[in-house]
Amino acid sequence: MELPQIIILNGCSSSGKTSLAKALQEKLPQQYLNFSIDAVLYALPGSDLAAMQRGEPIQRRGHDFGQLVRAYHYALPGLLQAGCHLILDNAWCERAEKRELLTELAGYRIALIGVHCDLDELNRREQARGDRAIGMAAWEFERVHQELTYDFEIDTTGISPETIADMVFDEIHRDRIWHGAIDSLEHLNMLG
Ligand SMILES: Nc1ncnc2c1ncn2[C@@H]1O[C@H](COP(=O)(O)OP(=O)(O)OP(=O)(O)O)[C@@H](O)[C@H]1O
């Protein structure tokens, strides 16, 4: 049985994607690299990143958030062509964004996983961490899972990242055909 070459964790901000990705990386015997749009955003000038995290506009010439998202999407096939396995954590809020990344990754074996969390718990985590604009999780909550078909879904409310990583580990070792990403892309293309 072959493991997926790409594990996509999709859920809103503070749902626990990165914590889960890090715990899962440690459990997997196969080496997976964990990437998200943060890999591009953390390359921004520090004050631009800080403004973005506060939810404030960035004035610097050349700033284009859509371009940064595309840069993240276009970089991933290069990593895959080099043979890397990837765990991607995304908070996909726009249909075009979902379609563009799934198109870039088409042809690879992908486990598409929905990461859920109770809204009150999301708001609590967002307040506690202090490095995200307040209200971002609630805004994404309504959008992030729309128009997608997952291979399986998990809920991080009240469960530690390590326990959830055990659950995901078991799921990705089950013998199955990974079709969530294929079905989702077909549906997104049909919606136009
Ligand atoms: N299962 C969990 N139970 C309790 N707290 C958690 C859990 N997972 C993550 N957290 C906490 O929630 C906060 C956000 O976690 P994390 O960075 O993993 O979320 P994320 O979904 O990757 O967020 P973002 O998309 O904003 O980067 C952190 O403070 C983390 O410690």
Automatic annotation (TrEMBL):
Name of this chain's protein: AAA family ATPase
Catalytic residues as annotated in Swiss-Prot or TrEMBL: 38
Any GO MF annotation of the entry: transferase activity
Gene3D superfamilies in the record: P-loop containing nucleotide triphosphate hydrolases (3.40.50.300)
Organism: Chitinibacter bivalviorum
Ranges in coiled-coil conformation: none
Residues where ATP binds: 11-18
Signal peptide region: none
